[in-house]
Amino acid sequence: MRAAEAVLEREGNVGPVELFQELRWLSPFDVKCWRKGDDEHRTLEPWIHVGPAKFQSAIRCFNDWAQGRGLRALETPYQRQDPQGIEALQVSESGDPQREKFYRTHYVPADLSAGQSKRVAEKLRKAPDLVVFEKVSEEGNCHECQAELGQGSYLFMEKGQPLCLTCADLDHLVFLPSGDGTLSRRARKQSALSAVGGAVQPGAEALRAAGIARKRRRTGPGGSRVPG
To answer: Whole-model pTM?
Structure first.
């Protein structure tokens, strides 16, 4: 399993989702949409582009490879964050517990220390940050309340639609001054909610339609957006 070895060497751990990306059976774009909770990507398995026989063969080979290498298994759930909290993500269409466990299991070297294993597990478990964008056009409205989103205002993209920060339940966040990493870290420790600034990626039609461009700000702890 050269693909699994490559991921393990590069990332220090490997799981089925990462393996299928390495094999180019699964697009990083589809994984990103799934992690964001897009309606078309409520589960990830339908986006794995390989036939059933080859898929089952890969699963067997991967399990045999991990066992033969004496790797240690870490079971870590995939999660996404929204303004209301943390949501567990489902990979398979059936939601079968054993199948979900297979996808949640990552493998790390057997000689990894307990502390290193804990850090790897925390990293894998961490949900991607919420992202807010700065409006650069003068036209556009919140999808939910229809409030006008003027140039320079901030919005949150939910399932491909722009929301004002009030409708996104993010209007209580506060800005932190830029350049103070210590303040950012302290604030993040004290708050269960934070968001970061985002940038439009090529092909992000929904963002461009909402009139959003590159935003050179990052949102700090406590949900604060930090100019940067």
So the answer is: 0.65
